[in-house]
Automatic annotation (TrEMBL):
SUPFAM superfamilies: GroES-like, NAD(P)-binding Rossmann-fold domains
Annotated protein name in UniProt: NADPH:quinone oxidoreductase
Pfam family, one: ADH_zinc_N
Classification via CDD domains: QOR1
Species annotation: Pseudaquabacterium pictum
Origin superkingdom: Bacteria
Gene Ontology molecular-function annotations: oxidoreductase activity; zinc ion binding
InterPro entries linked: ADH-like_C, ADH-like_N, ER, GroES-like_sf, NAD(P)-bd_dom_sf, Quin_OxRdtase/zeta-crystal_CS, Zn-ADH-like_protein
Enoyl reductase (ER) domain segment(s): 11-322
Length: 325
């Protein structure tokens, strides 16, 4: 097999394409022939040793992928060779094959392409857990989605609409705002050219959003939190903006508002039954056309460095998926 290997997590430029022995699955494991892998912001951080999950080098990055089960080890009953699966791997996606614990494999819904399979599980799983579980979003409430044109952002727009909410999508360009309107956002804010507090006040009649979905962090966090509604829920999803904000806690007191952490990976590990219920709902929404991954573009796996550069330059709209030759 071939894979992009990280020997030293000093950055994505250090990844090397190498030929390595194709591994055999051990007890409780399965080997997957990878067909498509998506690129997520944590995949950049992992290669910089800046993510909360720090694999031991050498490792193959790539946290989200889809493929076909080739072989299974002893004791594996949930999948068999030939099954089409999505993988919650943490690592392994940027190679031609991956051996993972069989419990991390999720059957692909009927009719789903490998490209969608590689772009679905992490973004939609994270977002459903964030909005409906951690945020307790109710029909008729208003959601502000920051970074709304990205992978998790587009998922948040779609899931919030499926849940019956009003969606305000905030993004950094007019083109990204237009995309958000196309996939269902009720209103948009270009935070590069508009004052986000003034825009939120106008769009909510001074009330503010009930739920804020924030995968961005950075300088936007405080002005947005100052605009949140009474009993609002501020969902801390990630820090794609680069900085981890320090919010004045008196704002939480004055607004009666909650700052809510979202760690989907640990949710999957700690609450597997709840995760399975979420999967059933997502599969139903996908079949109904209520949620569909927004595809930025597909690229050959050999172009991983160019894909990283595109994401690092914030050019990705929706999901960027890497395909095997």
């Amino acid at each position: 097999m071939h894979a992009w290997i990280c020997h030293n997590p000093t950055g994505t430029d250090a990844l090397q394409w190498e030929e390595v022995p194709t591994p055999e699955p051990g007890a409780g494991q399965a080997r997957v022939a990878v067909k498509a892998s998506s690129l997520n912001f944590p995949d950049i951080l992992i290669c910089q040793n800046k993510y909360q999950f720090k694999p031991t080098p050498p490792f193959v990055p790539g946290s989200e992928y889809a493929g076909v089960v080739e072989a299974v080890g002893d004791g594996v009953a949930n999948v068999k060779p030939g099954d089409r699966v999505m993988v919650i791997g943490g690592t392994g996606g940027f190679g031609t094959h991956a051996v993972v614990p069989a419990e991390k494999l999720v059957p692909m819904p009927a009719g789903m392409s490998f490209e969608h399979g590689a772009a679905f599980l992490m973004t939609y799983g994270t977002t459903q857990h964030a909005l409906l579980d951690r945020g307790q979003l109710k029909a008729g409430e208003t959601v502000l989605v920051l970074g709304a044109a990205g992978g998790v952002g587009t998922a948040a727009v779609q899931i919030a609409k499926a849940a019956g909410a009003r969606v305000i999508a905030a993004a950094s360009t007019d083109a990204k705002c237009a995309l958000c309107k196309e996939i269902g956002a009720d209103a948009t804010i270009n935070y590069s050219t508009e004052n986000i507090r003034d825009a939120l006040k106008a769009l909510t009649g001074g009330k503010g959003p009930d739920v804020v979905y924030d995968p961005v962090g950075g300088d936007l966090a405080e002005p947005v939190f100052r605009s949140i509604a009474w009993r609002g829920r501020y969902l801390v999803v990630g820090f794609a903006g680069g900085g981890i904000p320090a919010l004045p806690l008196n704002l939480s007191l004055l607004k009666g508002a909650a700052i809510v952490g979202v760690f989907w990976g640990d949710f999957v590990r700690r609450e597997p039954q709840a995760f399975q219920r979420d999967l059933q709902q997502l599969a139903q929404w996908y079949a109904e056309g209520k949620v569909t991954p927004v595809m930025d573009k597909t690229m050959p796996l050999a172009d991983l460095h160019a894909a990283y550069a595109r994401m690092g330059a914030r050019q990705v709209v929706g999901k960027l998926v890497l395909l095997q030759p």
